[in-house]
Amino acid sequence: PNGVAFNAAISACGRGRRWEAALHLVAESRSAGYPPTVVTFGAAISACEKGGQWHRVLHLLSQAGESRIAPDIIACSSAISACEKGQQWEQAVSLLADLRRRRLRPDVIAFNALISACAKGSQWHRALDLHEDLRRSSLEPDLVTFNATASACEKGRAWAEALQLLPELRRRGLEPDLITWHVLAEACAKAEQWAEAISALASMRAAGFRRNVALLNTVIEACEAHQQW
């Protein structure tokens, strides 16, 4: 097989979530006299991202750098997503800085992964900063963007900041979904903002969404803390 065939096989492994086989093919292509190209690294990074192997993704990026190969925006977005799945927010933010040094523009998917990574790392201030970066760019935030940012605020008990996302979401022609209302209600309840939590629950019900028992219990506890039940 030639280099093109190896790359195709690595991509196929990625689609099949067979990251170990993908890495084996990268090594095999080297042995066969076909050094990895930007396509090779991109396919291998994608395979490892799908397999939840963030540390191997970073190793591949390091190997690419040693080979003086600069992965494209798609590969870098996959790397950010891998860090998000592995709850490695610092690594994800570092990758964003690297993108900017290379004058590459992250897309909405990359921003969403970054914001989600910060949410998982309880970095709500950073999540809001990234949301603002996205707003200032020519990119359009989607519902995933808003839900990820709201989730970061909820984890940081920043209930007011979470609620402030709702008007902007609607100005952009988007409508809150079940995740949006759930996160907003939980953010208010955890911060013992019982009135706002009940309002979010009412909006959730008016929109036709079912409320789960865990969320109701959280809101009830907030109300009980203020003797409002």
Kindly state the percentage of residues in helix: over 70%
What structural class is derived from the secondary structure elements? mainly alpha
Beta-strand content bin:
under 5%
Q: What's the gyration radius in Å?
A: 21 Å
Overall pLDDT level: 89
> Are there runs of 5+ residues with pLDDT below 50, and where?
none
H/E series, N to C?
HHHHHHHHHHHHH
Give the overall silhouette: elongated
Described by strand count, sense and barrel closure, the largest sheet is:
none
Present the secondary structure layout:
Layout: H1 3-15, H2 19-31, H3 38-50, H4 54-66, H5 73-85, H6 89-101, H7 108-120, H8 124-136, H9 143-155, H10 159-171, H11 178-190, H12 194-206, H13 213-225
Helix pairs in contact: 1-2, 1-3, 2-3, 3-4, 3-5, 4-5, 5-6, 5-7, 6-7, 7-8, 7-9, 8-9, 9-10, 9-11, 10-11, 11-12, 11-13, 12-13
Molecular structure report:
- By secondary structure, the chain is an all-alpha fold.
- The longest helix has 13 residues.
Brief rundown of the structure:
The protein has 229 residues and is mainly α.
Descriptive keywords:
229 residues; mainly alpha; 13 helices; 74% helix; 0% strand; elongated
